[in-house]
Amino acid sequence: MPETPGLEELVDRVPEGWTPVHYRGRRYGLTRTTRADGRSVSVYAEELGGTDVVSTNILRTSTGDLLRPCEMPAPQVLAFLRGWTSDDASGDGDPPGPEHGRSVPGPSSRSV
């Protein structure tokens, strides 16, 4: 049986910046923003064309990573971090923006 990845591995596999991904048959815009010399990471995912949102902060300390979900249960965030898959096959890596009639807010545009 394969070993379950820890929080550090789950966060490390999220690329910096905006990335289109799939989760449970739906498309999401996934954003990772790293701050404070890598000691703080924000992960924000918004379902494209839907209403689902996944949002968390991760504090990287000398004793390990600390998950700080934003207004949702930790198991929901962990399920997303474990389950998303790359959307590379779509051929459309451009984030939706005003030119597409929709903007995708990042972690800093939502209250925590």
Compile the SSE list and pairings.
Layout: H1 7-12, E1 17-23, E2 26-35, E3 40-47, E4 53-61, E5 64-69, H2 74-83, E6 85-86
Antiparallel strand pairs: 1-2, 1-6, 2-3, 3-4, 4-5
- Strand percentage, roughly? 35-45%
Order of helices and strands: HEEEEEHE
Approximate shape? globular
* Overall number of structural domains: 1
* Helix content estimate: 10-25%
Termini separation comes to 37 Å
List low-confidence stretches. Answer: 89-112
**Quick one: biggest sheet?**
6 strands, antiparallel
For the largest sheet, list the strands in their spatial order.
Answer: 5-4-3-2-1-6
Question: What is the alpha-carbon Rg in Å?
Answer: 14 Å
Number of strands: 6
SSE-based structural type: mainly beta
Instruction: Give the rounded overall mean pLDDT.
Output: 83
